[in-house]
Amino acid sequence: MQVSSLNDVKIYSLSAGRSLPEWLSDRKKRALQKKDVDIRRRIELIQDFEMPTISTKIKVSRDGQYIMAVGTYKPRVRCFDTYQLSQKFERCLDSEVITFEILSDDYSKIVFLQCGRFVEFHSQHGHYYKTRIPKFGRDFSYHYPSCDLYFVGASSEVYRLNLEQGRFLNSLQTEASESNVCDINPVHFLFAMGTAEGKVECWDPRTRNRVGLLDCALSSVTADTEIEGLPSISALKFDGALNMAVGTSTGQVLLYDLRSSNPLIVKDHHYGLPIKSIQFQHQLDLIISADSRIIKMWNKDTGKIFTSMEPEHDINDVCLYPNSGMLMTANEAPKMNIYYIPVLGPAPKWCSFLDNLTEELEENPESTVYDDYKFVTRKDLENLGLAHLIGSSLLRAYMHGFFMDIRLYHKAKMMANPFAYEEYRREKIRQKIEETRAQRVQLKKLPKVNKELALKLIEEEGEEQQFSKKRKQKNLPSLLKDDRFKVMFENPDFQVDEQSEEFRLLNPLVSKISEKRKRKLKILEELEAQGQEEEEEPEGKASDAESSESSDDEKGWVEEVRKQRKLLRQEEKLKRQERLKEDQQTLLKPQFFEIKEGEEFRSFKDSAKKQKLMKKTLEDRLKLEEKLGTLNVSDTTVGSKQATFKLKKSEQQRKQQEAEKQHRQERKTLRRSASHLKSRRGRGRLFH
């Protein structure tokens, strides 16, 4: 039994471990159990709870005694008795089952919708009756008051089969081209169907009229979602009289109140896979939605994730055992998974020993699934020098990184940084010393990072405290003591760059203000070195002088901005001149290229154009030359084609034109360089 934990929610996988083949004899099975510890410790809650190849659907009868599952291959249905913890019967079918419904409290009345448009009825003894519907079906629901079966599928009609009269009734004509899913409300028996166009149509079975229409495809598109195609409805489930959950083919789940056309909440799985199943858990007000990769449990009021599970194989269906914390899944694998989550509810009566077992495990905690593994990103692997292991069995891809063995991680970290422990030890010692120093009489100590900003905040806090005392107001919390901004004064990456262009333009008075703060910083450093307490106001100019300076600064802020802009332009001009000087001093090394025999080199552009032209067909080349004017194709009176060619310029003329063009470019560059030198030096000559 494997135990995993997400958001402090324990999930027990009861089907973990190897399963023994059916064809083994009892003697060999006992021998394997004696030898293999994993087989001996595994929990087989229900004997042979599996399918030959895959399982597609799984349901529980209303009395909770029987669990029924369908799968392949060959197509079959298996019924498991929970009181006996074993399989009760198995029946093979003619074609694969799309979905099925248990009409009675036990297994005595079952309806199967099969691939070949067949609807098969089974009673307690076995096969009872078989009929066909006009179009291929995808889902059906049973209306208990009228004993009608509603079939939806690859048609705009909803077929009705009355089981009391034993005949088809008039079908419901919808506006949809195709329908994927349907459901009937258990309280007021409203019939709802999800269409391929992303809409949900609601019908009243009493009047056989449509009473509502929801455009879920439009509501599922939010600012955070990326959708490639039109979302269709892939799952539908009612909860009580007013709530309805809708799943789309693009991975969104929408929760509706039937009194409103707008969804209460939209939850995205972020996988882009169709939603396969939706279940409601009423004890904790949770919605359990599943696609083929993940099962998510989230609060239906806030949308906050409660927990999630990612099985090893793709999911086909999810079934929540009533009034318990047990969850069963049908997968793309022979074994059907069983999960027990104690937070959701107690264990069922037929396996009440699970509660005692989980309580013992919580008293004696063991290592969970992920305790022996370390999650690393691609950047961490590059820092450790293990990027070459991507794709191997030593790394398991998960979300935006990988899981690797914790022992391998520690070995690689020791080899990459052998002095990591010493640095960690020094840092711990430093923290202990700082903690002991905190108990002494503290001076006004500034942080190592952003000292000027911290001094500014301290001054502003002092002014605010004086102002609040006069007004008798409460003091606001300090940014220096706030944990949210603590890193800004500890991490050097957050150091304010006063030489940057943005800082100098947005703070035109920074130079004058910084000079005053720097004077105060020097005084504080001297006080700390001498071990003296800081005075309330350091020696210097009087407060009246400072106020007069601040008023002058406010008047001349425009001049300060102009001065800063002028300095920035001069610095940019100096940088351009330095780059030009470096370009002139650099010597270009010649590059040599090899030309094939029998070919004449013209230019790199001509060779590339020639290669592209040679790849084209004769028809495309003739059309291109006709557009350029070098070829003229016309019909003659006899019926044949006449082609007239214009010769291109001779090679000598073309070379002469290229030489003249290159000469003009060289003269232009020489004039530009000469003008730059004259402007910088005032005089000078240019030597080649």
Automatic annotation (TrEMBL):
Primary location class: nucleus
Ranges for region Disordered: 528-557, 639-688
Domain spans labelled Nucleolar protein 10-like second: 369-417
Residues annotated as domain Nucleolar protein 10-like N-terminal: 1-364
Domain of life where this protein originates: Eukaryota
GO CC list: 90S preribosome; small-subunit processome
Feature: compositional bias, Basic residues: 664-688
Cell compartments where the protein resides: Nucleus, Nucleolus
GO biological process: one example: maturation of SSU-rRNA from tricistronic rRNA transcript (SSU-rRNA, 5.8S rRNA, LSU-rRNA)
Signal sequence range: none
Alphabetic keyword roster: Coiled coil, Nucleus, Repeat, WD repeat
Pfam family, one: NUC153
InterPro entries reported in the protein's UniProt record: Beta-prop_NOL10_N, NOL10/Enp2, NOL10_2nd, NUC153, WD40/YVTN_repeat-like_dom_sf, WD40_repeat_dom_sf
Listed Acidic residues bias regions: 528-538
Domain NUC153, chain residue ranges per copy: 482-508
Stretches with biased composition (Basic and acidic residues): 648-663
Record-stated family: Belongs to the WD repeat NOL10/ENP2 family.
Entry protein name: Nucleolar protein 10
Species of provenance: Setophaga kirtlandii (Kirtland's warbler)
Lineage: Eukaryota, Metazoa, Chordata, Craniata, Vertebrata
